[in-house]
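Hi L., both proteins are below.
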Amino acid sequence: MPQVNPPKKIYDVCIIGSGAGGGTAAKVLTEGGLNVVMLEAGPRLNPEKDFKEHLWPYDLPHRGAGIGAVSRTELNDEFMAPNGFWEIDGEPYTNAPGSSFRWFRSRIEGGRTNHWGRIALRFGEGDFKARSRDGMGDDWPITYEELAPYYDKVESFIGVFGSKENVPNSPDGIFQPPPRPRCTETIIKKACDKLNITCIPSRLAILTQPLNGRPACHYCSQCGRGCMTASNFSSSQVMIPPAAATGRLTMIANAMAREIVVGKDGKAEAVSYIDKRSKTEQRVYAKAFVVAASACESARLLLNSRSSLFPDGLANSSGVVGRYLTDSVGSDLAGYFPQLERMPAHNHDGAGGAHMYMPWWRFGQKNDFLRGYHIEFGGGRGMPGVAGFDGVCSEHEGYGAGLKQKCRSSYGTAIGFSGRGEMIPNENSYCELDPNVVDRWGIPVLRFHWQWGENEIKMASDMQETFRSIVEEAGGTVLGHGRRHPNNGGISEGGAIIHELGTVRMGNDPKTSVLNSNCQAHDVRNLFVADAAPFVSNPDKNPTLSIMALSWRTSEYLLDQAKKGDL
């Protein structure tokens, strides 16, 4: 008898990436009745094994400092959520001559939602129509009103604390009660009130009340190291479990996507991926595809998916895949506050992040630069890490009782400020395939071109002036600058804020955009993108909440099209 090969399995949808966008898509699509396969480039996540938020330095060899005097704050070890990397052995990227861009990547179920600061800010009405306001960049093909219902859905499901404030272009949401401010935040709030700088409770995706079987935050303040109780948001603990509970989600871990394969009809039909464990190439087939690998990784996958139909990369007839790359404008400064030195020793517990922040308070005013920024700040006595005792010990020299006294007196006396502002896309900032370099799997890597515009440099300078005025008004003394570019007035290095986006932009014109208003490729109707790549602009708000809202909207559209048989 001749051997008969079993028919290949064809899923309804293949999702590439398990982070904010991919996890949201998995939840919506599986609960809508579709059979979904998800490819994740890293391993599965086990919170009880992988998260170490309650470990102390004395629980670890060399107190967690590593070997050869390597600081633990420079390592991806027990003091960070697992598998987040600035550099990955065997998976490089390159910078074009004269450019400097840093690319943070995550290789684990849930992606970078295991590492983010949980700052959950809605984009405002003005952010979607910024070009109409000042003539720079481009307007989005959708409005705030169209996305608002999906912000509602995301916030209601994941839990976000905050307060109703009616701040222009910083929309209120569906909030749980915010935690009370700590002493450091009270000091800064009083100074901001005197300077007429808006300072309000933060908006973080951390529970202050139980929700959907998840308990409220227990205020260990260690969100950056993971959360075994899932009281803070991560896709791995909040989005993927309900998708898996439907019985319609298949997760393939350690799967490095190499190429999306196109059929003769011009539609995507499969993903070719490398099984990292067996080092073999495999294929998975589906009727529709959702690319959610993160903005730059998604652009890389499309550029590597070349064929006779798409010689410049899949869905890239416009030539703009990889273009319009942006990151948030960042600048840092810290101050010393003598009143905190006199504070009795106390635990500085709370949510893992600032309980208060400053939204852009000069919206609609004329400034020396276009668009705006918000301010994050924090200080106090934290557990191990940069905000804790490590930073104090690195500032002082000596030994014995004198050194101990110096450390005790200065511990908890610093408050740091970080600005997060809007970058306007420019033609000199983009990513492309390096013509000569491949990774360990033989896949061409990305080469980055990067240049801040004059507008961003002016914005960073304004941040520095504002930080200084707050420190001095609060009775402090400026200590120095944090992570920043050394030559551009305090602005951060490209990529350092980890808010890169815009490489597979949406728009109404197929000649200047890759996706339509539903994040569906103009060229390939069964291909969708659901991370930060579709973003048209990079407002002064952290992008994760908007990634999830946009993914939810895209997924509902995909679900409707699938039920109609229109894919």
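That was the first. Here is the second:
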Amino acid sequence: MFERVLIANRGEIAVRIERTLSRLGIEAVAIYSDADAGAPHVRAADRAVHVGPTPARESYLRVERVVEAALESGADAVHPGYGFLSERPDFATACAAAGLVFVGPGPEAMALLGDKGRARAVAKEAGMPTLAGWSGEAQVSDDEIVEAVGEGDLPLLVKAAAGGGGKGMRLVSRREDLAEALGAARREAASAFGDERLLIERFVAPSRHIEVQVIADAHGGAIHLGERECSLQRRHQKVIEESPSPVVGPELRERMGEAAVALARHAGYVNAGTVELIAERDDPERFYFLEVNTRLQVEHPVTEAVTWLDLVELQLRVAAGEPLPLSQDEVRRSGWAVEARLYAEDPATGFLPSSGEVVGYGEPAGVRVDSGIERGTVVGTDYDPMLAKVVAAGADRSEALAKLRHALGATVVAGPITNAAYLRALLARPEVIAGDVDTGLIERLGDEVAAPAPGPELAALALVAMLGEPEDDDPWSSRTGWRQGGNAWTKRALEAPDGPLDVAVRATPTTWEWKVADATGTLDVDGPKTRRIGKFSARQRVVRDGEAVWVVDPDVGAVRYAPLVGDADAAAHGEASLEAPMPGTVVQLRVEPGATVRAAETLVVLESMKMEISIAAPRDGSVAEVLVAAGDQVDRGAVLIELAEEEPSAITRRGDELVQTQDGEGA
């Protein structure tokens, strides 16, 4: 076994790998960018090496520097985690050339299976059914693809050939949208994987996304550890995963597992990997090869929970040359496990990424949490928006789902907007409870899945928190509005999610009374709190950050309240401006001042947290001013482009007649 392993990654996966290394008595070496100098994965490591300046994401993609860091630290091996360099054959080759063991497949197998086009060919040779599409070593041009696609071929799924995770993926239902989808997919693939090549396949709908965990050693041993159901997705990115699948029985599990192992053997694959399948929703017996992830998967904890195996330990032992410690017949599975991915994103705005400082953080008890954040972590736009994973296990599916929903309610992330409340609402849907899911379910449900609006009592709770605790027992120091004849009402105008609120609270001997707009009520609290996380009840927490207050409710999520100061932020730019819906980088600017634009025409493309979004013109008009340039970093709400004011039309309609006006008078 190794003495020291460098982890070529960051965040929750780096922390998770460090846990296994510590248990095995192996030193962990972290790498970090300028932005991550004090991050949890750095502090948890035995050693840490700086690998580069900002932009932060590029620091983790510098093959030569990461290899140098491993040699500087005296590491024997490198674990790539997932994302970044984990599926780059050149990185595995560079590690081997430097005398470092790469904890993953060899570069030949990685190049073969990590490329979706070549992997399809291997799957066909191994006897696995595949979907029709365009692939192969020779990549035709975008124009040739558009020319070749007929209406009968639609819908199509455009995918990055060199990576997964939903990056570089676009669903195309109309032929006229294909050219733009190809361009966007190429840019996103190049940004995420350093490789812009694409694969195009027939899109199966409705479908289930099912994957099989395999692991093979260098001695001819190869096994599968069962399947995971990963059909609950948004933007082709998984949000809920579980093992086993609710629709896969023992016979189908064996068929899928044997097919996945046969593929791994055919490719000469060694170490852990995942064979991903697409299956028809109503007939999962009809499944097709999708891709191979030549690395550890984000959702590997659910497999660990039902097999009681540590996949990172198995990876390390196989990489060290040991045979697998068990055969296929010795694999045991019991119970059920479900994982939820906690993202910094706003479900109310189409899951756009969110950023900011984590001013309050608390993890639930009784479940597994893989996290790379803490109080004080600044969630920026350089990395993927996933903050943590919450994993619940139970004797059966209903128990695991109930535990996960409860755990999400006890999870506190205040600061950036997260999807925690949305996930609780999703897990309560009858379709999810019944296991009747497919990859398009979240999109179809739309606004039917939403966290409830915050009630007025949360604003009152925030004001109580703002009052703070008395400095001593002297009634004159009380901040409760104490008067000899009875406590007075404390009134404040608060900035709320949907606009200003007039809030008043008054302390009584046993509770607090409140008035918010036309609503009244009482709070079951024991007094003002100023601690970072003060428990007001079993359901709510209050997080202070200077004058701002986050009231955290499991059904609502974090709600920010602050004293209302003027109305400087209330000005709206209206339809004359295009504003950034998320913080990010301007990757494309398609217009110049004076250009004529049409409604729905894409004018700016932003990238944030490895996701692209196109910003379109709200109406026909002309560009008055362009306020950004390609490469600029912008904040949420920043004005990107100003359109010229619309001139009053000289033609108006009066009844069934068109009437021309001149100088404001009828003519």
